[in-house]
Automatic annotation (TrEMBL):
It comes from Actinoplanes missouriensis (strain ATCC 14538 / DSM 43046 / CBS 188.64 / JCM 3121 / NBRC 102363 / NCIMB 12654 / NRRL B-3342 / UNCC 431). SUPFAM superfamilies: Probable bacterial effector-binding domain, Putative DNA-binding domain. It comes from the Bacteria. InterPro entries: AraC_E-bd, DNA-bd_dom_put_sf, GyrI-like, MerR-type_HTH_dom, MerR_fam, Reg_factor_effector_dom_sf. GO terms for molecular function: DNA binding; DNA-binding transcription factor activity. Keywords: DNA-binding. Residues 4-74 form the HTH merR-type domain. This is Putative MerR-family transcriptional regulator. Pfam families: GyrI-like, MerR_1.
Length: 261
């Protein structure tokens, strides 16, 4: 083949399967030097083994194909360092996520019995004046946003707080960034939370387990003839810096209204 390696020999030399090489060709990551227009047979130059080795190594590190393609196209050490640094940050975030999963799994292994859901009560809240900060954030950014927002609100609020800090979230859950409002009740607040009828569950425990409180509210709501009537609230009665994580207290409040037929 004019000094070219057929795909079978190139596969053996590169330790990359022929099927994967075909996929790399179709994606533009590693194109053969020649493709026979009659048979479709692919031929590769021996020099392409170096690129194949780089691709194989980076795929073992779970670097996405698009990022590998970017590095090979640039062939610039600066680009390579940037792409690998970004990949490292993604892997650290994934490691943190897996650590949380393992910790929760260990907790369930130690005590597999179902956790008693928190009781739900129906209450009427009056309007309340608050200082507030709103931003569009994803779920994995909630904690960082709230920490910064509450620090800002604490510095800027005039007068003493009249209640615990809290946050408003959309009535419907979304994977993408959503508007979240952090608030601090205070007599001189420049915003007002509306009053009304609420279903309330007080959850005790770490924030990453708070879905149990939401499940309790959902169970209560089913068959009640009511539906969520607006943004839901979380009032942080006791949190970081006040009590240990397993004693955090969060009041989850769903505004409710009659379900329309």
């Amino acid at each position: 083949m004019n000094g070219l390696l057929p795909i079978s020999a190139f596969s053996r030399a590169s330790l990359i399967s022929a099927n994967t090489l075909r996929a790399y060709h179709e994606s533009g990551l590693l194109e053969p030097a020649s493709v026979d227009p009659r048979t479709g047979y692919r031929g590769y130059r021996a020099a392409q083994l170096a690129d194949a080795a780089v691709i194989r190594q980076l795929r073992e590190l779970d670097v996405p194909l698009a990022r590998i393609r970017e590095m090979l196209a640039a062939r610039d050490p600066g680009v390579t360092r940037r792409v690998l640094a970004e990949h490292r940050e993604r892997m650290l975030a994934e490691q943190a996520r897996l650590d949380r999963i393992l910790l929760a799994t260990d907790d369930l292994l130690a005590e597999p019995a179902p956790v008693t859901p928190p009781p739900v009560t129906e209450r009427t809240f009056p309007p309340v004046r608050v200082f507030s900060v709103t931003a569009a954030v994803r779920e994995d950014q909630f904690a960082g946003f709230l920490d910064e927002a509450f620090a800002q609100l604490g510095r800027g609020a005039s007068g003493e707080a009249t209640g615990p800090p809290g946050a408003l979230y959309p009535a419907e859950y979304h994977d993408e960034a959503v508007p979240v409002t952090a608030y601090l009740p205070a007599a001189g607040g420049d915003d007002e939370l509306p009053g009304g009828r609420f279903a309330v569950a007080e959850f005790v425990g770490p924030y990453h387990d708070m879905s149990a409180g939401y499940r309790a509210l959902g169970t209560w709501l089913a068959g009640s003839g009511l539906t969520i009537g607006g943004p839901v609230r979380e009032n942080y009665l006791a949190g970081p810096g006040e009590v240990p994580e397993d004693r955090y207290r969060t009041e989850i409040c769903w505004p409710v209204q009659l379900l329309e037929d």
